[in-house]
Here is the input.
Amino acid sequence: MKDYDIAAENTYNTDEKGFMLGITARSKRVFTRAIWEQNERRAAIQDGNREWISVIACICGDGSSLPPGIIYEGKAGIQSSWVCDLQPNLQEVFIAYSTSGWINNELGLAWLEQVFNRFTIDKARRRWRLLILDGHGSHVTSDFINFCDAHKILLAVFPPHSTHSLQPLDVIYSVATAPIRTSKGEFLSNFWTTWSESFRRELILKSFQATGVLPMDAQAVLKRFNKTPQQQLNGVKVGQQGDGDSWRQLRNFLDAAVEDRAKVESKRLEQSLHSLQVQNELLHHENEGLRSLLNNKKKRNNKSKVLDLQHSEEYHGGAVFWSPRKVQRARELEATKQQEASNYNSKKTTRETSKQLL
Here is the structure.
């Protein structure tokens, strides 16, 4: 950072988190991409009745944050029912879709070009920017790296399995993971409330400090691992069975109880414990969702349609993150089409009625 004179206002951390929607139970759980990609764990957190929405967040060392990118799971395009609650003047979000609900190579490059570069280039004023991220394939393609190199963006990739200790955004996400019983159409308004409450300047600054990124301080991380086993046990609080201990709590307990984490047995224990914790969490939220459905049955009567989103310019790779104003214009166009169709049908009915009377 010193070699390239990277200032705090040009230091960024980005990450993607997935929200699992339970269509029947309306349950939700937040997962990292790495966990989702592990087949043995995916089986515990996914069935044919659930869909995904992922969120790309990016925070800055000066306490600011970029507008989130929301990726819906879909095949035909962005549905009108997904964004019916979008308020462009209040909610600065960028919308995209993929068949999995997660980022892919094309969307990764689209986010870099259309969101990150757009909202950071003016502040950089030709100085170097630092983007800290995980090593997912969507971030390390040749196109992604070439774009960064051409626009003075340095990439710093976290070592495998280290983001829970080193990534500032993990501090934010630990606050922003309250259960949201929701559907695709209700996700945006519920998500924005949580986003606004969690991505505050003071919390963002603390997240960079707690992970030793800004100011640079290796001891901020190392001191967590320098405790004696007895000190670790004294600092760990685990609830009774079924109390809903988080994976972070259970990981701390495991670190304190197991001396040699490199052993195969320790790895197997960690995987089994994580799988059980995930299943317990899902059952907990699913039960809450079922209770919510019994108490409050809401159905949307509006038929969902694919929005007619027009490209005003071509981007490398073809993928697009749509701004709230472009989505709003597409919604207005769809409303106009529906009104014209309604007027046409009304006039047609009037003419047919008049003919019958004659």
